[in-house]
Amino acid sequence: MDNVFLEALVRALAVGTPLLLACLGAVVNERAGIVNLGVEGMMAVGALAAFAVASASPDANLWLAVGAAMLAGAALSALHAFATVTLRANQFVSGLALALIGTGAAGLLGKRFEGMPLFNKVPDWTLGGLTISPFTVAALLLAGALAFFLNSTRPGLTLRSVGENPAAADVLGVNVGAVRVLAVLAGGALSGLAGAFLALSYRASWADNMTAGLGWIAVALVIFVGWRPLRAVWGSLFFGVLYYLQFRLQGNSPVPPEVFSAMPFVLVLVVLAIAGRRGQQGDAPAALGLPYLRGER
């Protein structure tokens, strides 16, 4: 029984890691008032950038590959920042376009890397009898750091004020546009880091559609956890358990495998419906999704 529990925990932590990293990035975006539905695309380009750098030679620096993934995610998110902050375009349409651009570009440019070996992967750590990825440890630490930043620091208060009442923040001398752009770039970097985990640790390979919808689940997870970084830890672990059960039960049940593949996405709809009935959407930043123009009411 203990072995089964530990296996489930390790698997849940592994699958939950990219969800947590991407969710934290989306929390940063949305706390500043910007909705970014392009998480899936940013994860995809991050995974591709990481694998491209890591597979260049046996002596490739893996942490340089991680940096490349974060840079790629931030660069793609800059398109969203330009469209939504500078041009004040519809944030939902821009985010959807970003998801399509990112996954499409990664699939096209990644054709040459399919089947190529990854000379080495980011080594796992052994902590308390558990084999755990450094990415997982980093994600947990980032969740705590982000919670502290948002709730206990002046820059965090500034970020939240821009998402709640950008006009009031502007009156107090805050550059609303700059704060929102930086938040979008930071969110993109974290999504790229989630992609790096997939390419360098979890799968240690490159394949088209390797994000497999995790970015969309991360977007929904933000609402489920009420825009709270520490709650995101438990939310990502919950969905990690669902993914573990999906693989565990396939082949051991008369139920068609497609049912298990759809299970995490069905649960996303269920938990969002529950959150909506309980009024959890009331925790959303007041100016979420609304463009800001100085002097406009």
UniProtKB/TrEMBL annotation:
| Keywords carried by this UniProt record | Cell membrane, Membrane, Transmembrane, Transmembrane helix
Where it mainly occurs, coarsely classed, is membrane
Any one GO CC term of this protein is: plasma membrane
Q: Where are the transmembrane segments?
A: 6-27, 34-56, 62-85, 92-110, 130-150, 181-200, 206-225, 232-247, 259-276
The answer to whether the entry has keyword Cell membrane is yes
Cross-referenced InterPro entries: ABC_transp_permease
Per UniProt, subcellular location reads as: Cell membrane
Q: Name one Pfam family in it.
A: BPD_transp_2
Question: What kind of membrane protein is this, topologically?
Answer: Multi-pass membrane protein
Q: Which GO terms describe its molecular function?
A: transmembrane transporter activity
Q: Which PANTHER family match?
A: ABC TRANSPORTER PERMEASE PROTEIN, SUGAR ABC TRANSPORTER INTEGRAL MEMBRANE PROTEIN-RELATED
Query: Under which name does UniProt file this protein?
Result: Sugar ABC transporter, permease protein
The scientific name of the source species is Deinococcus gobiensis (strain DSM 21396 / JCM 16679 / CGMCC 1.7299 / I-0)
